[in-house]
Amino acid sequence: MRIRIVDAFTDTPFTGNPAGVLLLPDVGSFPDAGRLQRVAAEVNLSETAFAHPLPPGGAADWALRWFTPTTEVDLCGHATLATAHVLRETGAATGTVRFATRSGVLGTTAHDDGAITLDFPTSPLTPVAVPDRLAEALGAPVLSVHDTGPHIGDLLVELTDERTVRDLAPDVRSLAHHSTRGVIVTAAAERPDLPYDFVSRGFFPRVGIDEDPVTGSAHTALAPYWSARLGRDDLTGLQASARSGLVRTELRGDRTLLTGRAVTVIDGTLLTGL
């Protein structure tokens, strides 16, 4: 069975967020979850995506699941982008593809210029008090904290400026106590002439990811937050990890469009069958 490693939210190899992608045969269902989890643990990337085609005429075209090295997750942006990229690259699907997932039907649209847009649910934001010891765990002052609701289960934390976000060296183990999934830190871009409007980083130790290189799903919370602050529905976010990546966001009420690019860096064979 072929397995591909795709760098998502970038067009430059070895940047962005790498995801494993396996397109499974049309067998009508997924293999046992334990077997999928073992493959994801072996691949050992933030997420590995498994997809199989669905019968024509239904609400979705493909079924899709995502696994970190330790657990299955409800929503993943970069591995969805990577899967849509592989479908287009192999000719298995073109244009708009609908995926049946644990977060409902998610659409992706491949554009002629090579970009791919994801149609995801917008995460509702609720202001909350700064949790005890959060600033200590981050090692930086906190301006505000928002709960992101059930879609992603993160805390969205605004810090003082872009340099603070970039230089952050948090106690990742302590951050695991502060949210269901992870902690997203963010700040406005330091200058208006930069090719992005805000920066972020994401830490997800509860699901086996100390720092995620580029988190598409986090931008379903970052988009409404910064759109309200900046007064524009179309923005670009830079996730300022060591690998880095750009996510274009478009807020459409209860849906958020996330646009990025992807590049395949490894195309190989899984020798042990599922």
From TrEMBL:
Cell wall biogenesis/degradation recorded as keyword: no
The UniProt record lists the keyword Acyltransferase: no
Superkingdom of the source species: Bacteria
Entry keywords, A to Z: Isomerase
Pfam hit, one: PhzC-PhzF
Family from the record: Belongs to the PhzF family.
PANTHER family xref list: PHENAZINE BIOSYNTHESIS PROTEIN (PTHR13774), PHENAZINE BIOSYNTHESIS-LIKE DOMAIN-CONTAINING PROTEIN (PTHR13774:SF17)
Full protein name: PhzF family phenazine biosynthesis protein
